[in-house]
Description:
alpha/beta; 12 helices
Amino acid sequence: xxxxxxxxxxxxxxxxxxxxxxxxxxxxxxxxxxxxxxxxxxxxxxxxxxxxxxxxxxxxxxxxxxxxxxxxxxxxxxxxxxxxxxxxxxxxxxxxxxxxxxxxxxxxxxxxxxxxxxxxxxxxxxxxxxxxxxxxxxxxxxxxxxxxxxxxxxxxxxxxxxxxxxxxxxxxxxxxxxxxxxxxxxxxxxxxxxxxxxxxxxxxxxxxxxxxxxxxxxxxxxxxxxxxxxxxxxxxxxxxxxxxxxxxxxxxxxxxxxxxxxxxxxxxxxxxxxxxxxxxxxxxxxxxxxxxxxxxxxxxxxxxxxx
Length: 307
């Protein structure tokens, strides 16, 4: 080991896998080698991004891109080491986009903590981020796994579909559409519409499906997050079409949820770093998440049936 890794090893609990420290040593050696190459080659414009601002960002040589990826990897290792030193080995790091991170994930964590009541509880880090940030965090090793929307590239991941649901229509209590059990495309045409951003994959599917029926939405506000659509609908700013798991979180607050007569799918991907084997704690939590998803789906069916 290099001297830096010897120091690192002395600061971490003895039960930390020594292989991780060897990886740290290799990464440090690689960075030192690249710095020597930089000095000898005197590469023009070869300056870390944090020191050079955004000037000529798109003209960076390919080697610089690889070096910056390496520094991201070093940051991930440093984060892991600090977590191990502070909380020990039994920890869980999850990244999640807001549609599932603000209501669904807390319900899952409640079940996790209840299942650990008779033994040591794992330390959990839940980071609620945009789907792109979730992907970056998982790829860099800062999360054991993540949940993200389906519009993000899955390069560097082993993605599987965690959930797929038909979208639902949301509105405030007392809205004229609330008396209907199912909403048709033409009923959305003349209403102020709370839309997800145009780049959202489910928004594009909605626009395409409505176009088949000759319907164009009258978008008054667009936003990247379904939770924002729910909040604005509660305040009477319009109606929206979102994933039902997020809508379910707001039903108890008075948000009216109705079926859409045409199917527009909302998909959630489970993202795991390519080649990574999940820990026992992560596997256990995934089983809890899948059970909670089934429970939420049943609750949603009962709500829509009673509407």
